[in-house]
Every structure is written in structure tokens, then in C-alpha cells.
Amino acid sequence: MHDPRYGRQKVVYHINGNGAADGILSRDALRNMQNHIDAVGVEALELRVVLHGAGVGLLALALQDPGLQTDVKRLQAQGVTFLVCAKTLAAQSIEPTADLFEVRPRNIVLSGVAELAHLQQLGYAYIKP
Fold first, then answer.
1. CA-CA 20 to 30 A from 107: which of 38, 86, 89, 101?
2. What is the pLDDT of residue 94?
3. What's the gap between Cα 90 and its chain centre?
4. CATH classification of the domain holding 113
């Protein structure tokens, strides 16, 4: 059920913690995003996820975890966009289309922190789960 008092929202979730490597942070963050969508409504929410540093582990772990795959795909189907830091990929020698789940060239941004600042300049509220 959507609560109309929330109105339209633009939100960016920031994922960079070590918990992404073991799936705990990953599942909690993805659950937070789904709860957010459920409260505001798909049609009233623009939701971006910026992953850098250890946070990229969420999409690496999803390659081996069917439950995480389902969660990521469900969020994507509701309009959530996952954005991955190119600097992290280079520093960790990660091949995005081979080493990460559901990452295409359009999902890669030059710098995760610069993207966070850019989205905030565009009016996106910042959430750090």
C-alpha cells in the first residue's frame, strides 16, 4: 500500500560496505529498497543504487546466489538502476560483464563518489543503508 503523503521521490542508495561480500548488507539493503518502493510506489519513485569499493561485492556475490539474483532482477523490473564505479572495477581488476551480475556498459559510471554528488545535485536524497 502506498502512502500519498510521501509524494514523488528521487533517491540514491550508497553501497560501499564490506558486508556486501558476505551478503548480509546486500540482503538488508535490497530489502530496504523494496520497502521504500512498497511505501512510495513504483510510479512515484526514481531509485538509483551507486556501488563502489567493497560494495561492488553485492553484484559479484549475486553471480553465485540465486536469491540475490531474484532480488536484483525484481528491483530492476521496478525501475531501480544499479550504477557501478569504473575506478573500483579498474583497481580490483573486475571485468563487469563477466564478474558481476546484470552489469552492462550503461551501468558503469566514471566515479562512484562523483556520481553520488551529481545525483544529489539533481535533487536525489541520499540514503546509506
1. 38
2. 96
3. 19
4. 3.40.1260.10
